[in-house]
Structure formats: C-alpha cells, structure tokens
Amino acid sequence: MSLLYTKSLRKTFGGVVAVNDVDFSVQENSITGLIGPNGAGKTTLFNIITGLDSPTSGDLFYKGKSILNTKPHTIARIGIARTFQNIRLFKEMTVLENVMIGRHFKGAHPYFSKNSYYNAFLGLIFQKKEELDIYQNAMKWLSFFNMAGVKSELAKNLPYGKQRELEIARSLATEPDILFLDEPAAGMNPSETEALMQTIQKIRTLGVTVVLIEHDMKLVMNICEHITVLNYGRKIAEGTPSHIQGNPEVIEAYLGKDDE
Amino acid sequence: MLNLLLLVMILLGLYIILSLSLNLIAGYTGLLSLCHAAFYGIGAYTTAILSVHTGLSFWLLLPISGLVAAVSGVLIGLPTLRLKGDYLAIATLGFAEIVRNVLTNWDSLTGGPRGISGIKPPVLFGYTLDPLKKVNYLILVWFFVAITFFVLKRIMESRFGRALEAIREDEIAASSMGINTTKYKVVSFSIGAFFAGIAGSIFAVFIPVVVPGGFDFMLSVTILCMVVLGGMGNHIGALIGASIIYIASMLPQILGFSSIISPQFNQIIFGLILVIMMIYKPDGIVGRKKPDFEKLIGASLKKEVSR
After folding, report:
1. pLDDT higher than threshold 50 for residue B307
2. Looking at the predicted structure, is the pLDDT value of residue A28 above 50?
3. Do A71 and B175 count as a contact with CB atoms less than 8 A apart?
C-alpha cells in the first residue's frame, strides 16, 4: 500500500488550475521523482501535502488516514518533512542551531515540556538533559553531512551547496518517515550533484522515503524508482524511468510537438 | 542631587524591565509591537485601582497586574499576530491608543486625566516602603530587573527560545519544523506583556499619582528605540540601550543644566544617537550573540562523555 497518496487533488488560483485532479502516490521506502516543465504545479502539490496550502477539492491520505487541512506543524510531527525551492534557512542563526530547531519536537523531554517555557523559568534538571539530547542529536546529523566543522558558522555564510545540505540535515533531524525535496540540485555543479545523489541514496537506507522535484534529468533518471510527470497541473505519465523516457507525451511536454 | 540620582536609577530600572520584555517580543520573536506602553499602563492601573478599591497588598497586586497585562497580551495577540511587520505595528498601535483612551476617559474607574492617588505603599515584613525614601525602591526595582533578566535569559536558552528565534528568521520554515507558530507568538507576546505589567505595578506604588499621560505612543517608541539601539535579540543589548537612551535624556538634569538647556534638547540628542547608530552600527551596539552550547551544557556533556 502507498505510504502517501492523493485522490483527485485540485487547486485553483482564481482561474488558473495549478493542480488538476492529480492522483499522486508514494510507495514506502522508495525514491519517487516528480518532474515537469516550469509552472506544472509541482511545488503547489508539495505545498498542499505539507499543509502550507489547502486544496480546492480532493483528498490526501498518509498512512491510510486523511490529512487534509492539517496545520504544517502537525504535518511535521506526524513524520512529513520538506525542504524549499528557494532555501529557507534560519539565516542569522548558526548551522548547529538550525539543526537543533529541527529537533524541536522530537527532542522534547517526554515527562515535561509540552510547553517548555515554564520549565525554562524554573531551570529544572530536565532542561539541561533536554538541551544535551538535542545538541547530541543535532551533531549526529551534522556529522552525517560532514558539517560538524562549520557548526558555529552563521547559516547565511555557508556556500550555496552546503546551505542546501543543511536544509536537508535540518529536515532529517525531525526524524521524518517521508522527506520531500524541492529541487535539491538547483544551482549545484556536476560534482556537487553527484555527491547529492549519493546522499539521497544514503538517506533512503535510513528508512526514509524520499520524494523529489528536480529538473536535473541525470539525477532523476539515476536514482528514482518511480516518476510522476505533471504538465499544466495535470498528471500526464507515471512509471519507471525507462518507461517515462519513452513516453511520447512526456517528450512533447518537454520538447514541444513536431510541426510536420 | 542624591535624590535625583536615585530617581534616575529607579526609573532606569523600570525602563530596563520594559526594554528587556519588549526585546523578547520584538528582538527575539521579531514581532514589531508598538503597544508596550499600553501593557505598562495596564499593569500600573490594575495595581492602582485594586489598591484603592480593595486595599490588597502590593505583593498580591504585583503578580495580578502582570497577569492582567499578560491576558490582555493574549487578547490582542490572537487576532493581530497573524499580521506581519508594519501591519502588526499598526494594529498594536491601534490597541495602544484604545488603552490610552480608555484610561483617559473612563472617569468612574480610572479617574480620567486626574489619575489615581492614594495607592498603598508596599509593606515588607512589617516595614512600610515609604515612596519618599527612594533607596527602598531602588532595591525593589533592581531586584525585579535581576529577576526579569534571568528569567528571560533562561527562556531564550531553551528549546522554546530557539523556536521563537526560528519564527523571527523564517516563519514558514519554522512551522514545517513542527513549531506551532501562532501559539508561540502569542505566548511570547504575553510573557513580554507580563513583565511590562510588573514594571507598571512597581511604577504605580512608587509615584504619588498614576495618570494616563505617561503611557502614550512616545513611550512605546522610546522602548523600541532602546531595544534597537542596544541590539535586537540580546538581553545585554536591551540593558545597554535602555541605559544610554534614558541617561542621555536625563543628562541636562543630572548635570544641573536643566534651567539653561530646554527639554527639547533631549529629543535632539535622542535623534542624533539613533541616526549615528543606524549609519555605523545598524545591528545595534551588541547585536545577536551566537550561543555557545559547549559552555551552556558543558558540565553534563563531560559527564556523558566520560560514562
């Protein structure tokens, strides 16, 4: 059964149909690609799934339950994490703090601190324990991305590729079951993209299902097991990479129709 | 002369509590609020009204005033905190004007522009803190400055504080990290209001008569300037900013020039300080400090490693 699937999901902005009755599904522990030309509705679909946008109609299921109109913070708590197309790091905070924020709810001490402020008032011993756990877990994720050395740098000072990795590290710190990557390779050079491909495969071995939007076809065709293609908000094809590569409708969407 | 210095130090203490608490709202959580004077006024009037009508002791009125201010913070926060930046500033400004107008015009409760007098001074272990003996109040105020400082510092060094800063940096990213941004913004707002209410309560028992004139828009702006000058998102910054602006504004009186220099001169100094700062140090005097987690959790970290 699919870990997550949508049922004729639709989103309109005024007269524009950004997502047009899309049935999109993600198999557990797979790497799924979502591709399509610019403006095809890929990011809108991501935004709806992660609660940042609400659909006009249709339904959305995760682990068999409808998660329609769930708030973004609740979505994160039930195990759906994401990154953003235009990097959204906490820029004035350090690399380590960024990942520590990813631990916000998983790092909460089980016996107290649903609301940590009054415990912080009291400065209880839990407080230190909690901070220690959050710190150590954040460091674990930084080491996973070989970034422990720059933990005290401000996030905005990192090079572009590292900022993208930090965003992934921060999402992974929430211990998601499913991770949505919105154009993770955008702006990366070929060797950085190569490294990213290995990282994504490494993430999957942790038991995390990965869904990615990407324009870099080399990356998509190499690592995705399942690909869904959107064009003008409509799903035009889905299947394995080889299946997609031979699909005439997909070729047409990307390259245009032959006039003759 | 000594009396004047004591007065300056007492009022400075109140300003520091106000700027520390606004720093939580504006500096750490990034909510541009222009109604801090209203919370201060609500705290002062809660103490004044209850003290005159019920005769409750100051030590009970102090937390009540804080709570009333905090509740009004929640009430104004729930509808307005979905706004951002300048929109929020205007909404909070509207709230501040409502409060000021209510205080000025609800004659039967607040005494209108004449204000409220006859507030009972606090009694500590049978010893009455006479408002004429300023040393008592100096100690009282600075005791609460210390409490405010350490409580707010503690809060900001926790998971909760980090979440507030995340909201300031990027609200959408913060919400997708599992942070309930609406709730956290409202809580931050009400904690800030709580301490402003505490400051108002102390102010009410210290001055002979509580009048609405002091809790106006200019005060909110002055507190915000203190926070910005010192450095948004740094407790020491709020402390330094409040000290510089308040002492600079009182300098003619302290030096005994108040008969030569007109009070408008204060505004000139005030404006000059802000202009110079914006050119040379736009982040404020101290700016945000990177937290040193190795130091913060150092002891427990070592224990963990040796295990």
Report:
1. no
2. yes
3. yes
Contact flag A73-B178 (C-beta cutoff 8 Å):
yes
Q: How large is the average pLDDT for residues B248-277? A: 78
- List of chain A residues whose C-beta atoms are within 8 Å of the C-beta of residue B301: 132, 135
Span A86-110, average pLDDT: 86
Contacts of A50 (CB under 8 A, 6+ apart): A72, A75, A76, A80, A82, A180, B176
Average pLDDT along chain B: 86
Q: Given an 8 Å threshold on Cβ–Cβ distance, is A131 in contact with B159?
A: yes
Chain A residue at shortest CA distance from B298: A132
Find, in chain A, the residue whose alpha carbon is nearest to that of B168: A90
Q: Do B163 and A84 touch (CB under 8 A)?
A: no
User: At CB < 8 A and 24+ separation, what contacts does A242-245 make?
Assistant: A244/A35, A245/A221
Indicate the residue of B159, B169, B291 with minimum beta-carbon distance to A130.
B159
| Phi/psi of residue A7, nearest 5 degrees | -120, 115
User: Is some CB atom of chain A closer than 8 A to the CB atom of B300?
Assistant: yes
Q: Which residue of A has its CA nearest to B283?
A: A92
Minimal CA–CA distance to B40: which of B206, B149, B199?
B199
Got the DSSP string for chain B?
-HHHHHHHHHHHHHHHHHHHHHIIIIIIS------HHHHHHHHHHHHHHHHHHH---HHHHHHHHHHHHHHHHHHHHHHHTTS-HHHHHHHHHHHHHHHHHHHHH-HHHH-GGG-EE-PPPPEETTEE--TTSHHHHHHHHHHHHHHHHHHHHHHHTSHHHHHHHHHHH-HHHHHTTT--HHHHHHHHHHHHHHHHHHHHHHHHHHSSEE-GGGSSHHHHHHHHHHHHHH-TT-HHHHHHHHHHHHHHHHHHHHHT-TTTS-THHHHHHHHHHHHHHHHH-TT-SS-PPPP-HHHHTHHHHHHHHH-
Confirm or reject contact between B298 and chain A (CB < 8 A).
no
Least confident of A52-56, A136-140, B117-121: B117-121
Are residues B291 and A97, on separate chains, in Cβ contact within 8 Å? yes
pLDDT tens digits for range B199-247: 999 999 888 888 888 888 889 988 998 898 888 888 898 999 999 888 8
| ipTM of the modeled complex | 0.87
Average pLDDT score, chain A: 86
B159 touches chain A (CB under 8 A): yes
Sorting pLDDT into bands at 50, 70 and 90, what band is A95? Answer: very high
The pTM of the full predicted model, rounded to 2 decimals, is 0.88
A176-180, B23-27, B194-198, B259-263: least confidently modelled range? B259-263
Q: Do residue B178 and residue A82 have CB atoms under 8 angstroms apart?
A: no
- Residues in a beta bridge with A179: A81, A210
- Over residues A174-217, the pLDDT tens digits come to 989 999 999 998 888 888 889 899 999 999 999 899 999 988 88
Counting one residue from A and one from B, how many pairs have CB atoms under 8 Å apart? Answer: 122
Judge: A130–B163 Cβ closer than 8 Å, yes or no: no
